[in-house]
């Protein structure tokens, strides 16, 4: 773990020097001028990097607030003082090169990282104003308020119907009418109803990859969560299936607060309202998606979104 | 490189095929050993021995005949009151081919000055007893003797005989064994001194039995007086003088429908009961165990139908079963069984247990085997049938070529030949090595001698040759099933729970210690486990039965109580102590055991009249306590289901859920116990009692002990495979479930366990295979009593333990030996099917796992 982390750091340095040599003069269009090398180098050194947060976010109502959040896997630190506000009803994308801590941050929101051995945190997160990490919080209840979609579709080996109503089942719901209603609503919500309505009792494992992922989304929204966490939901899918998921995200926007991790910059620009750029565990820049992709404040961000490194 | 590739490929191929061949060879070998058991018996052609008849006087009848075990000589007793000796089947068979030796008499023996008036030739015909007109009886012993002589001492004219040739020499049957050795066979007779049993009245029927304390003789005289004489031989240790003491008892036979004197008198093998039989089928059985007062035990009618009269009555080997043949050809086997209500003087009842069917003509001869429960029956039309009485099977049937009735049939000591008389001597080869074996006799209930009804029984050997072997495999199969059931009942829940706990709840670094530790348990030799079970565990458990029973309740209760109390601690403290939960649950189990030590004696006083073992004997106390063992788990299960439903409504109420849960738990526990008690009391009042079925008399080495200890042997296997199956469930399924707000427990129960189900099932099947074949633990701790009882507190005998115990003692190629191989074959088939099923399920599981 420690050596892997060291490698990651040295890689980071390599990339950073590439970026520094490739882009010597600062772009005049960038309003607040800090050189790409500055913030990235600071992040690589493990120093605290002040996040460049756009003013557009100040107007948004917060669904999740993250305050000075740090996270360690054993001795190695994975997140450095991340502070951000996830706006309610909007789609927020987390981008950044591999190993930058996007997924870790995402999994910290519903405390799924608790399961990993040796995880330590500092700082706090708040869901609708209530602390997530307070010791009096019931993690189980907390997770019920969030849905999560994983990188690889993970339908349970049971029928499509049972997959969708699983969150209700674990709450002890037995009323058939309620279950039927939730099942239909969720499948419609995940745009899977028309394909699946005639085969609800068949195994979910018989669905195609894209269908499986939509089923996972249907399952995630079945319990009517406040926040939907998506961890690279399209990375295991073909372009057509990816397109359908992206359409779906578009439809779910407004109803749910969506936090999505993606490697695909186009996807981020297409689907999200806000984009956060992370690098080596630090949140570098955070702002409206259009701003982030067209007029990022930082050189580093621009270097990344324009595909010059990462 | 290619060379190594093909070398490896061929080595693997050879190994694989070799394994299959080895397993099939074992199977084929077992079948090969077992198969002769079910081969039908053979009866050779009946053919005359030379011209022996010409040596007897024209009106001389043969009354008894016997062949010796080498089949070289036959002796016969004839109506001229003389014994004659002639060459037997082995010598005449060879003689016939070489025209030598003819049926000449080798010798005769006339022991009696006057002709006897009664005679009897007991089954193991080394001795005969005769009664005389003057009221005396005499024993005559016949012994085949063999003498070896050097060629040097033989006259020249026999030296031309080739090796192996048989001839008559000096009135004996001689055989050249080798170039310089000859074997001389003959029969020698010794007549004892007469014993005066009756003053003046002639003896009309007589019988004798050899008992461990000495011979017993019974006789009936012309006045209808039955006398029994017991001869006790004692040897003076100082002088070496042998003294014979006689003791006599008598009773007048006055049957209710007396028609003169009885035709036969038959004394039981034990010398404790005698039966006088009239030709019309009436019989009086006299209890002669106390010579000072002989008592008529019962009168029975032995005739099968009123129109027939009895023609032949004879003991089967062991003199416990009476074979009765009548003029219509019916043959039945009668023996004593304990009378249900002690209605007879000796508490026994004479019953027709086996009906061997009706023959083609009247029964003319009965000849018992001296080593098995077989009987040769001759009929009036010359038909000869060979029966096994235990199994009731007709083994073989033959017919006298001359169609003359056989008046004497006698099986040779090794059942390999028979000699008969139809006016001349006839012999036939017999091939019935396993007369008592048939699928029916091995697997269905069989009516054994002295049993009240047909039963499954396994008792393969005893001290004497007269014993009836009981080769019912079912008690052993049952024992195997019982051992497997109780050990699985104990082992499976523990192993599966442990596997679920390890894979779903235990921290990886603890798991990396715990798993190998449990797997190490599997390497513990089962002989050590069995030894511990039998010599340490069994005596300890015997002393603390109530505590053990209490522990079944208190340990889970205390564990759950502690879990609920744990929920009351503040969240912060709980998360801090998370790592030590493992240790804390250990403490809870110890507390539970402590509680059992306290509660056990209280329960014993309250439910089991203060002494569990006395209660288990079933003579005292109410049945309530026993029923609790069943009703309590049932009511707990019911309340868990009901409690689970109630939980949903509780969610609506906010607040201190920990306290609520604790209260609910306590309430449910109380309700369960109360409900269980109520139902148990009800069942008890309804007159139902578990004692006699699932519970019963406590034996120190029992199914409970085996269940614990064999469970211990099975746990590591089930645990390892189950844990692997659970761990192979992809992590993203767990994460998916947890992310939806499921608790780790819900995730385990609803997602992980169902997904791994076939893996878990195959783990159980593999454990089952181990439990079925396990030998040492059951051998040492199960008591090895082949009884058919589900009673947890009684022992049993499994197929495997039986093989281990008996195979070293079994005579090679005997029925017993082959039956043990059949037991092995049964075991092989059982484990083969279990393992095949496990493998098929594992393959299915693997297919399913690939989809994930």
Describe this entry's structure for a reader:
- The complex is a heterodimer of chains A (310) and B (852).
- With 310 residues, chain A is an alpha/beta fold.
- Chain A has a domain at 155-224.
- Chain A is 39% helix and 22% strand.
- In chain A, strands 1-11-10-4-9-8-7 form a 7-stranded mixed β-sheet, with helices on both faces.
- The model of chain A is unreliable at 1-33 (pLDDT under 50).
- Chain B has a domain at 474-545 and 697-851: Orthogonal Bundle (MetI-like fold), CATH 1.10.3720.
- In chain B, 40% of the residues lie in helices and 25% in strands.
- Chain B contains 19 helices and 34 strands.
- In chain B, strands 7, 8, 9, 10, 11, 12 and 13 form a 7-stranded antiparallel β-sheet that branches. In chain B, strands 1, 2, 30, 31 and 32 form a 5-stranded antiparallel β-sheet that branches. Chain B has a 4-stranded antiparallel β-sheet with strand order 3-4-5-6.
- In chain B, a hairpin with a 2-residue loop joins strand 10 (166-169) and strand 11 (172-178).
- Classes of the chains: A alpha/beta (310), B alpha+beta (852).
- The A-B interface holds A 110, 112, 115, 117, 135-137, 140-148, 150, 152, 154, 156-158, 166-167, 169-174, 205, 216, 219-220, 223, 229 and B 507-509, 570-572, 575, 644-645, 647-648, 651, 730, 732-733, 735-743, 746, 750-751, 754-755, 848, 851-852.
């Amino acid at each position: 773990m420690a050596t892997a982390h060291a490698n990651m750091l040295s890689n980071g340095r390599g990339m950073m020097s590439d970026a520094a040599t490739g882009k010597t003069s600062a772009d005049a269009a960038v309003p607040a001028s800090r050189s790409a090398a500055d913030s990235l180098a600071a992040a690589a050194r493990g120093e605290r990097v002040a996040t460049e947060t756009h003013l557009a976010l100040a107007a948004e109502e917060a669904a999740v607030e993250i305050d000075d959040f740090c996270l360690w896997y054993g001795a190695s630190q994975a997140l450095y003082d991340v502070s951000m506000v996830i706006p309610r009803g909007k789609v927020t994308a987390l981008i950044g090169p591999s190993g930058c801590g996007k997924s870790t941050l995402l999994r910290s929101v519903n405390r799924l990282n608790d399961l990993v051995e040796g995880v330590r945190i500092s700082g706090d997160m708040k869901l609708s104003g209530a602390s997530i990490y307070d010791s009096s919080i019931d993690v189980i209840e907390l997770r019920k308020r969030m849905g999560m979609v994983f990188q690889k579709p993970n339908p349970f080996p049971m029928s499509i119907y049972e997959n969708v109503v699983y969150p209700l089942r674990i709450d002890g719901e037995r009323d058939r009418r309620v279950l039927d209603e939730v099942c239909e609503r969720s499948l419609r919500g995940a745009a899977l109803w028309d394909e699946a309505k005639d085969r609800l009792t068949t195994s979910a494992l018989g669905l195609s990859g894209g269908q499986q992922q939509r089923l996972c989304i249907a399952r995630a929204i079945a319990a009517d969560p406040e926040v939907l966490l998506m961890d690279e939901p399209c990375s295991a899918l073909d372009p057509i299936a990816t397109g359908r998921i992206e359409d779906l995200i578009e439809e779910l926007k407004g109803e749910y607060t969506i936090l999505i991790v993606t490697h695909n910059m186009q996807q981020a620009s297409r689907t999200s309202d806000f984009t956060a750029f992370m690098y080596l565990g630090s949140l570098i820049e955070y702002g409206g998606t259009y701003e982030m992709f067209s007029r990022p404040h930082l050189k580093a961000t621009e270097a990344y979104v324009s595909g010059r490194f990462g | 490189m290619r060379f190594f590739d093909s070398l490896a490929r061929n080595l693997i191929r050879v190994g694989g095929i070799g394994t299959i061949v080895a397993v099939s060879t074992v199977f084929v070998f077992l079948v090969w050993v077992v198969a002769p058991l079910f081969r039908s018996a053979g009866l050779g052609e009946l053919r005359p021995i030379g011209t022996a008849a010409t040596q007897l006087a024209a009106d001389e009848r043969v009354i008894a005949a016997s062949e010796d075990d080498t089949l070289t000589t036959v002796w016969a007793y004839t109506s001229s009151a003389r014994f004659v000796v002639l060459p037997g089947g082995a010598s005449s068979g060879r003689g016939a081919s070489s025209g030598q030796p003819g049926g000449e008499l080798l010798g005769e023996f006339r022991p009696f000055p006057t002709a006897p008036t009664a005679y009897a030739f007991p089954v193991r015909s080394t001795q005969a007893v005769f009664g005389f007109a003057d009221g005396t009886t005499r024993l005559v012993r016949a012994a085949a003797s063999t003498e070896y002589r050097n060629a040097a001492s033989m006259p020249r004219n026999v030296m031309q005989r080739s090796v192996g040739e048989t001839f008559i020499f000096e009135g004996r049957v001689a055989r050249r064994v080798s170039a310089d050795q000859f074997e001389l066979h003959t029969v020698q007779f010794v007549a004892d001194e007469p014993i005066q049993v009756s003053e003046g009245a002639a003896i009309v029927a007589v019988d004798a039995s050899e008992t461990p304390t000495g011979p017993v003789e019974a006789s009936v005289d012309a006045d209808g007086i039955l006398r029994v004489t017991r001869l006790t031989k004692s040897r003076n240790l100082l002088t070496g003088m042998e003294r014979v003491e006689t003791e006599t008892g008598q009773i007048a036979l006055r049957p209710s429908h007396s028609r003169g004197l009885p035709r036969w008198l038959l004394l039981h093998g034990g010398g404790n009961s005698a039966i006088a039989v009239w030709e019309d089928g009436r019989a009086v059985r006299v209890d002669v165990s106390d010579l000072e007062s002989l008592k008529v035990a019962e009168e029975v009618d032995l005739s099968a139908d009123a129109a027939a009269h009895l023609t032949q009555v004879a003991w089967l080997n062991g003199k416990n079963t009476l074979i009765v043949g009548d003029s219509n050809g019916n043959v039945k086997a009668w023996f004593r069984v304990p009378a249900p209500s002690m209605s007879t003087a000796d508490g026994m009842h004479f019953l027709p247990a086996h009906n061997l069917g009706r023959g083609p003509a009247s029964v003319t001869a009965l000849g018992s085997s001296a080593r098995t429960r077989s009987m040769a029956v001759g009929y009036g039309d010359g038909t000869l049938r060979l029966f096994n009485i235990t199994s009731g099977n007709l083994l073989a049937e033959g017919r006298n070529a001359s169609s003359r009735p056989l008046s004497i049939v006698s099986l040779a000591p090794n059942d390999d030949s028979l000699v008969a008389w139809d006016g001349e001597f006839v012999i036939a080869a017999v091939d019935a090595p396993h007369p008592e074996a048939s699928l029916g006799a091995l697997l269905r209930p069989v009516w054994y001698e002295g049993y009240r009804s047909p039963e499954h029984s396994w008792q393969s050997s005893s001290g004497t040759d007269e014993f009836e072997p009981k080769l019912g495999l079912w008690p052993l199969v049952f024992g195997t099933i019982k051992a497997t059931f109780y050990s699985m009942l104990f082992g499976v829940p523990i192993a599966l729970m442990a596997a679920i706990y390890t894979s779903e709840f235990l921290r990886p670094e603890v798991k990396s210690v715990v798993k190998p530790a449990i797997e190490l348990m599997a390497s513990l030799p089962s002989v050590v486990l069995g030894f511990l079970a039998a010599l340490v565990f069994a005596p300890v458990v015997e002393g603390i039965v109530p505590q053990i029973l209490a522990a079944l309740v208190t340990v889970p209760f205390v564990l759950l109580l502690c879990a609920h109390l744990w929920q009351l601690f503040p969240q912060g403290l709980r998360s801090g102590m998370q790592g030590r939960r493992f240790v804390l649950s250990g403490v809870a189990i110890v507390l539970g055991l402590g509680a059992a030590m306290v509660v056990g004696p209280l329960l014993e006083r309250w439910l089991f009249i203060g002494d569990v073992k006395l209660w288990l004997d079933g003579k005292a106390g109410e049945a309530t306590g026993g029923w609790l063992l069943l009703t309590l788990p049932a009511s707990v299960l019911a309340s868990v289901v009901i409690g689970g439903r109630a939980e949903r409504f509780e969610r609506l109420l906010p607040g201190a859920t920990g306290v609520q849960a604790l209260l609910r738990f306590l309430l449910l526990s109380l309700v369960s116990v109360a409900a269980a008690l109520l139902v148990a009391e009800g069942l008890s009042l309804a007159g139902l009692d578990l004692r006699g079925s699932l519970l019963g008399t406590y034996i120190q080495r029992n199914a409970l002990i085996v269940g614990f200890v064999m469970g211990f042997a099975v746990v590591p296997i089930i645990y390892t495979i189950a844990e692997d199956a659970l761990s192979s469930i992809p992590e993203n399924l767990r994460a998916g479930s947890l992310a939806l707000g499921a608790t780790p427990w819900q995730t385990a129960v609803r997602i992980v366990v169902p997904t791994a189900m076939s893996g878990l099932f195959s783990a159980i099947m593999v454990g089952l295979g181990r439990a079925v074949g396990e030998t040492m633990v059951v051998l040492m701790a199960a008591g090895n009593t082949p009884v058919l009882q589900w009673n947890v507190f009684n022992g049993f005998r499994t197929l495997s333990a039986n093989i281990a115990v008996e195979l070293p003692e079994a005579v090679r190629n005997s029925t017993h030996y082959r039956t043990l191989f059949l037991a092995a074959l049964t075991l092989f088939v059982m484990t083969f099917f279990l393992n095949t099923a496990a493998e098929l399920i594992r393959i299915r599981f693997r297919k399913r796992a690939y989809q994930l």
